[in-house]
Design brief:
It is found in: Endoplasmic reticulum membrane. Helix content is 77%, strand content 0%. By secondary structure, it is an all-alpha fold. The longest helix has 42 residues.
Length: 179
């Protein structure tokens, strides 16, 4: 029986994270992008509940289509068109244990950590139209934080995994002479 490695444990975290992120993306994040006519009532109510309890300035601006937050709506489009396929590919690749999934996970992790870091900066330093209580502010930081931290760890992890694979191949290639 093979030993359970730290990479295996990280992969389990990534799997769980992808499942959670995919669900939150479909049920909440991309809802402001959809026309009212195609939104499912249960998802509308979920987003309403979320915004009533945590007046998330980013999601409020996306819903209101505030032009000063066009960048955030683009992040949501990016989540729908790039992140969701990455979740499906990532889940499949991690379940199969195939290293061929590492480059897409690296690309996802770079994009997700960068976009979420931008959102965190706006949450912390932005001028919000709806004031946040300290409890709401801490909740939002704790809600957004893992969506930065896990991709940031994944970014470093996938870089090292790819580097090890390429490094081992390139050292073999160096030993071959040109014909």
């Amino acid at each position: 029986m093979a030993a359970y490695t730290s990479a295996d444990r990280r992969d389990q975290v990534y799997l769980g994270f992808f499942l959670i992120h995919a669900i939150s993306a479909v049920c909440v994040d991309i809802q402001p992008l959809l026309p009212q006519a195609v939104q499912l009532d249960v998802f509308k109510r979920l987003l309403d509940f979320y915004l009533e309890n945590t007046p998330d300035p980013l999601m409020l601006s996306a819903r209101s289509q505030d032009p000063s937050f066009l960048w955030f709506r683009w992040f949501l489009v990016h989540e729908a068109l790039f992140f969701l396929p990455c979740f499906l590919i990532g889940i499949r690749g991690l379940l199969k244990g195939t290293p061929s999934v590492y480059p897409i996970l690296l690309a996802y992790a770079a994009a997700a950590s960068t976009t979420t870091a931008t959102c965190l900066v706006v949450l912390v330093l932005g001028d919000h139209k709806v004031p946040l209580t300290s409890t709401q502010f801490i909740f939002l930081l704790s809600a957004y934080g893992p969506f930065f931290a896990i991709p940031a760890v994944m970014l470093v992890d996938m870089y090292h995994r790819i580097h090890r694979l390429i490094g081992s191949d390139s050292s073999r290639l160096k030993g071959k002479k040109k014909a």
